[in-house]
Hints:
Elements: H1 3-23, E1 60-71, E2 74-82, E3 92-98, E4 105-111, E5 122-130, E6 134-142, E7 149-156, E8 167-168, E9 188-189, E10 195-196, E11 202-210, E12 213-221, E13 227-229, E14 235-237, E15 243-252, E16 268-276, E17 281-290, E18 295-298, E19 317-324, E20 329-336, H2 342-348, E21 350-351, E22 353-354, E23 358-362, E24 369-373, E25 381-387, E26 390-392, E27 396-399, E28 407-416, E29 423-424, H3 432-439, E30 447-456, E31 464-472, E32 477-484, E33 498-503, E34 511-519, E35 522-527, E36 532-537, E37 549-554, E38 560-570
The structure holds 2,5-dideoxy-2,5-imino-D-mannitol (DQQ).
Amino acid sequence: xxxxxxxxxxxxxxxxxxxxxxxxxxxxxxxxxxxxxxxxxxxxxxxxxxxxxxxxxxxxxxxxxxxxxxxxxxxxxxxxxxxxxxxxxxxxxxxxxxxxxxxxxxxxxxxxxxxxxxxxxxxxxxxxxxxxxxxxxxxxxxxxxxxxxxxxxxxxxxxxxxxxxxxxxxxxxxxxxxxxxxxxxxxxxxxxxxxxxxxxxxxxxxxxxxxxxxxxxxxxxxxxxxxxxxxxxxxxxxxxxxxxxxxxxxxxxxxxxxxxxxxxxxxxxxxxxxxxxxxxxxxxxxxxxxxxxxxxxxxxxxxxxxxxxxxxxxxxxxxxxxxxxxxxxxxxxxxxxxxxxxxxxxxxxxxxxxxxxxxxxxxxxxxxxxxxxxxxxxxxxxxxxxxxxxxxxxxxxxxxxxxxxxxxxxxxxxxxxxxxxxxxxxxxxxxxxxxxxxxxxxxxxxxxxxxxxxxxxxxxxxxxxxxxxxxxxxxxxxxxxxxxxxxxxxxxxxxxxxxxxxxxxxxxxxxxxxxxxxxxxxxxxxxxxxxxxxxxxxxxxxxxxxxxxxxxxxxxxxxxxxxxxxxxxxxxxxxx
Length: 576
Ligand code: DQQ
């Protein structure tokens, strides 16, 4: 290629990257946008922003978690993977196994294009453990260059192999579902885990859209092989666009114990989550599943649409949960894409991580879910430092010393004695992210902003603050939680959003707890015990290695006390 052509290619790539970053929330939005980069392998892999304890393979591109499950003593994680480069393309199901969800061993790819029904791609899907049969994978196959999507079936070649290394896709039954006349065949993907019903049928959902209406189609089968579409979708919602990676499961009304996907009854609520391709945000509703009518109806306290609840208000997409029978819990996996440019990804030789797996259960208010990092993560906690009853007056920044600031787990409780100084809340502030961008962490407030400054350089040229700001509305207080990447790096050409969500927390205790998992290029935070959660990807240039620092801060006029801060230097997970 000549120099001019080279420059033109670089120019076009930069232009493309910028438009994707601006339009699509910084997250990969389309499936065929970098054909010329799909197979550009990394010359070397750059370690600078690689994570130490988040899941990522040694090199190349990853996206959605697929078919996570616990089976015969092993956790399995499959994921969308480009074996040839560090942008999306050439997608296979890569496969890793673990005994503890922290340390992982890679196996050979489980599913890759090899048949007429998946020749152009093996896209996302789920596993179901079928009694008497073992695990079955349902995934989306791409059959042609027009992006035609069908649902396919794969089973382990040797079900007695504890690692389930090899998977087969029987020719005589595949594809198991094709789009019928009423269904948009190029927007028809990501089958869920199936569930067994007393009427003798398996049921599963497939994500879709009709024009701008998001849809989850329901399919039924007696033998897991012949599937028939139910009379109507289990649920749909106008103007939400394509529903990718639907997830549907019950949660117990009381307590933390989880339920297998097919459990119904008076003591459960159901959750329907969809990943919205238009913005690459997800939202979920809590509601009631009426199995006899094949219908799901969201509660009237659960907003159905763009303003709905999110698992995470940051960079977290295409998530999938599974029931872990070994500990009676439901675990949520989600993909966190890069926020740098495609050229950065090609240069780094890798792109994409999985968020820390989270246990999810119903909040006692029954209006939202709670999430918390899996307990196994604590095994990586090393040296611990503490800060007790540290007073923070307006403008105070205090360093938390003695912890590896770029690789840490921090839990802290922030308290205040009065809400009198809370700023007035303008009811037109409906979008938390806009409000966070407007106010930031530096603008002085009344009660807050207060919280952590993570990945901070000594002189604060770079920092990623995770913080709260409390407002006074007509009859209540409104708490804003932010994870703001605006000042995270002196580097330009990065997506640096002010991610934020509102936090439904009881303020009568005058305390707000916060946990942040800091891991080089990710800050994953859990507000008030996992009520509002935000994952940010950041790429500091100065705040790296031992030049990175951790601070607590307060920029509000109300004094804040940091109670019981514990920060652990985190070890490195063994991910091969
Ligand atoms: N990614 C997969 C699709 C899914 C999308 C393709 C979500 O199956 O809809 O890599 O990120």
